[in-house]
Amino acid sequence: MYKTYSMELAGRTLSIDIGRVAGQANGAALMHYGDTVVLSTTTSSEKPREGIDFFPLSVEYEEKMYSVGKVPGGFNKREGKASTNAVLTSRVIDRPMRPLFPDDYRNDVTISNLVMSVDQDCSPELTAMLGSAISTAISDIPFDGPIAATQVGMVDGVFVFNPTAEQKAASDMELTVASTKDKVIMIEASANEVPEDKMIEAIYAADGLNRQIIAFFEKIVAECGKEKHEYSRHLIPEGMMDAIKELVPSQEMEEAVFTDVKQIRDDNIRSIKTRIKEAFAESHEDWLGAVDEAIYKYQKKTVRKMILKDQKRPDGRAVDEIRHLAAEVDFLPRVHGSAMFTRGQTQIMTATTLGPLSAAQRIDGLDESETSKRYMHHYNFPSYSVGETKPSRGPGRREIGHGALAENALIPVLPSEADFPYAIRTVSETFESNGSTSQASVCASSMSLMAAGVPIKAPVAGISAGLVTGDTDDDYLVLTDIQGLEDFFGDMDFKVAGTDTGITAIQMDIKIHGLTRPIIEEAIHRTKEARTYILHEVMNPVIAQPRPEVGKYAPKIVQIQIDPSKIGEVVGQRGKVINAIIEKTGVKIDINDEGAVSVCGVEKEGMDEAINIIQTIVKEFKAGDILEGTVVSIKEFGAFIEFAPGKEGMVHISKISKDRVEKVEDVLSVGDKVKVVCLGKDKMGRMSFSIKDVE
């Protein structure tokens, strides 16, 4: 016997079936939002995983193509690896869930979301977030939930909750906010330069709706929730921390971590670990396996005390001070555009590549409104950037997430397809990493796009704010431009990108049970100050606006407009005409359904020739127009002249010469180039030409 619970959510019905399916999972909820159906399950291993010092949580979001009535593309006809959207959705579910599990929980936990039916007006991603929260909350797995999530759009300045597909298309904001019953715990946003105060207003409008959802969830947990199971606590052996502090006094630990050079700090900590392990090998051999975690906790406590109590940062900066910044463009000589941005020991180089619109990425996903991507941003994080060694296995979830964040930050400032008919790819290579490489890639990409001649509306910069909290909500310190150590031992990584006008992207990661409004407001306004400094003092002196035209190594694209009814004539049967133009001129040609023709090439002569051919094909010739063509066939009554690929007209034998012509072959041969004047159309609807009347 299962139970169904329902509530009205943003004008649609959210209903949840508990106990209907997946009975062997620790927790399961069959979610219905409109006609969107998602099965959310949460499971845990019986025993902790041995030999690890982290919580092994895995979040999955599985897109099934049958949910939108599609057969998967490709040869296999089966869903393959997770799409980019699935990876990003898994990450956005993970971020608010992870902090609410016990710090020392080491059992494997998998949260799985199976998308089985999609109503385009009811987001499956949001439904999965809600399903993950309730399936975990009713399970017997220790979890300090539930949480809730709301999506916010803004149409004509008015907030829209959980927007429909039509509202999303018109929205200036895509904001997702997750909350506990007390605080905001996750923010993800992309926006069209939305002012900071408007963004804060939207965040707390979503938080208000989240609290209504949580009240609904708490009723379900009260009636269906299982008792939380006991688990093996993962604790440092009693007396071990005291022994470590005798060997390494707090003053020595402070000196070890108090440096702005990551390699020196790593060497200091490595030396301390070696000394402790040597001491314990003689006195407490059973403690050796816990040394790494104990030193981690000792470092963490030391760094947090230095920052919060002493207001001293490990590299000596003030709390609102940015590390040393540097920027340059044209780092690579032959690419279409390139730039490098350095912030302390974080260094990113971005290369921009321009191509015809046919190079846009095709998308085979659940969102029927998005079938291709004209702008692609890819982010790479090699092991050498942090002084480590490991083989490259392609981009992981982190790389995909960071690339998407920078992509969202830059999309709002890109020119329209009509104004700039190119496909655009930016690739950010991480040369060195010590905190917030994703926001450095935003800065480098903005400059790289301008160097490539992409007419972006405004430069974009990004920065990250951190946080260290004490025992009360009022005891905290917000840090501008956190480095790796402050991110590692701190409570927050609040990334904000934008222009002078407003915010274009936000991503907030935290390790605590939510943030108060004063913290969020301070972080957003602090990042605004830092962004403004970076834009005006570092980026603009290097390149303040896009170059007037694309570089000499970039393809040139000219766009012309034709009557959409003439597209078939330009393309020809099975592409015969357009392929002939491409072969003859060496260009690439794209045509959209509205009749916009983009001609892409390197040589101006070939582009001009292709444009001339296309314009000739679609032109409605009238009597008196003069044009050139080639004799393609000869008949007794005249010759056929091809004046463009697939376009022919006839010259009657009487119109070939002012002198009498007995046989066409006496005057013309196949392949001859001739100039003709148009006489209009004959009785058969064919173009009729004259050679003898050309003046």
UniProtKB/TrEMBL annotation:
Q: Provide the protein's localization.
A: Cytoplasm
Top-level EC class as recorded in UniProt: transferase
Q: Which CDD domains match?
A: KH-I_PNPase, RNase_PH_PNPase_1, RNase_PH_PNPase_2, S1_PNPase
Question: Which residue numbers delimit the S1 motif domain?
Answer: 624-692
Q: Binding of Mg(2+): at which residues?
A: 487, 493
Against SMART domains, the record matches this protein to:
KH (SM00322), S1 (SM00316)
Question: May I ask which residue range the UniProt record assigns to the signal sequence?
Answer: none
Assigned EC number:
2.7.7.8
GO (cellular component) term, any one: cytosol
Cofactor(s) needed: Mg(2+)
- Which coarse location class applies to the principal site listed for this UniProt protein? cytoplasm
Q: Which PANTHER family does the UniProt record give? A: POLYRIBONUCLEOTIDE NUCLEOTIDYLTRANSFERASE (PTHR11252), POLYRIBONUCLEOTIDE NUCLEOTIDYLTRANSFERASE 1, MITOCHONDRIAL (PTHR11252:SF0)
UniProt name for this protein: Polyribonucleotide nucleotidyltransferase
What is the species listed in this Swiss-Prot or TrEMBL entry? Answer: Parasporobacterium paucivorans DSM 15970
Q: Which gene encodes it?
A: pnp
